[in-house]
Amino acid sequence: MMADKKQNDNKNEKKRKESILDLSKYLEKQIRVKFAGGRECSGVLKGFDPLLNLVLDNTTEYLRDPDEPYKFSEDNRSLGLVVCRGTSVVLICPQDGMESISNPFVSQD
């Protein structure tokens, strides 16, 4: 009876740990990550786990303009090797093929 319960617990644990995203195709490639709170960075994906904790190398953080919080400034900060906590990750996208566009919802003066 106890052995059956342990097998069921192991099966349920394996199901819970599966991630929706398969980031293995982005390993060793440049990705961009957006975090809760508005921070953004890009780096080479070195590793990840089912909770979306990420390990990025050659990481660059994009700093926001202090006067306009929705706009990035020209300043960047080099961070090197970082571990990004999965609970704060909002968006992950490949850096290749991505381009910046102006915000269509902000009136252009």
Automatic annotation (TrEMBL):
<keyword id="KW-0508">mRNA splicing</keyword>
<dbReference type="GO" id="GO:0071004">
    <property type="term" value="C:U2-type prespliceosome"/>
</dbReference>
<feature type="domain" description="Sm">
    <location>
        <begin position="18"/>
        <end position="98"/>
    </location>
</feature>
<keyword id="KW-0747">Spliceosome</keyword>
<dbReference type="InterPro" id="IPR047575">
    <property type="entry name" value="Sm"/>
</dbReference>
<comment type="subunit">
    <text>Component of the precatalytic spliceosome (spliceosome B complex). Component of the U4/U6-U5 tri-snRNP complex, a building block of the precatalytic spliceosome (spliceosome B complex). The U4/U6-U5 tri-snRNP complex is composed of the U4, U6 and U5 snRNAs and at least PRPF3, PRPF4, PRPF6, PRPF8, PRPF31, SNRNP200, TXNL4A, SNRNP40, SNRPB, SNRPD1, SNRPD2, SNRPD3, SNRPE, SNRPF, SNRPG, DDX23, CD2BP2, PPIH, SNU13, EFTUD2, SART1 and USP39, plus LSM2, LSM3, LSM4, LSM5, LSM6, LSM7 and LSM8.</text>
</comment>
<dbReference type="InterPro" id="IPR010920">
    <property type="entry name" value="LSM_dom_sf"/>
</dbReference>
<dbReference type="GO" id="GO:0005688">
    <property type="term" value="C:U6 snRNP"/>
</dbReference>
<dbReference type="GO" id="GO:0005689">
    <property type="term" value="C:U12-type spliceosomal complex"/>
</dbReference>
<dbReference type="GO" id="GO:0071013">
    <property type="term" value="C:catalytic step 2 spliceosome"/>
</dbReference>
<keyword id="KW-0507">mRNA processing</keyword>
<keyword id="KW-0539">Nucleus</keyword>
<dbReference type="InterPro" id="IPR017132">
    <property type="entry name" value="Lsm7"/>
</dbReference>
<dbReference type="InterPro" id="IPR044641">
    <property type="entry name" value="Lsm7/SmG-like"/>
</dbReference>
<keyword id="KW-0687">Ribonucleoprotein</keyword>
<comment type="similarity">
    <text>Belongs to the snRNP Sm proteins family.</text>
</comment>
<keyword id="KW-0007">Acetylation</keyword>
<dbReference type="Pfam" id="PF01423">
    <property type="entry name" value="LSM"/>
</dbReference>
<dbReference type="GO" id="GO:0000956">
    <property type="term" value="P:nuclear-transcribed mRNA catabolic process"/>
</dbReference>
<keyword id="KW-0694">RNA-binding</keyword>
<dbReference type="GO" id="GO:0003723">
    <property type="term" value="F:RNA binding"/>
</dbReference>
<dbReference type="GO" id="GO:1990726">
    <property type="term" value="C:Lsm1-7-Pat1 complex"/>
</dbReference>
<protein>
    <recommendedName>
        <fullName>U6 snRNA-associated Sm-like protein LSm7</fullName>
    </recommendedName>
</protein>
<dbReference type="InterPro" id="IPR001163">
    <property type="entry name" value="Sm_dom_euk/arc"/>
</dbReference>
<dbReference type="GO" id="GO:0000398">
    <property type="term" value="P:mRNA splicing, via spliceosome"/>
</dbReference>
<dbReference type="GO" id="GO:0097526">
    <property type="term" value="C:spliceosomal tri-snRNP complex"/>
</dbReference>
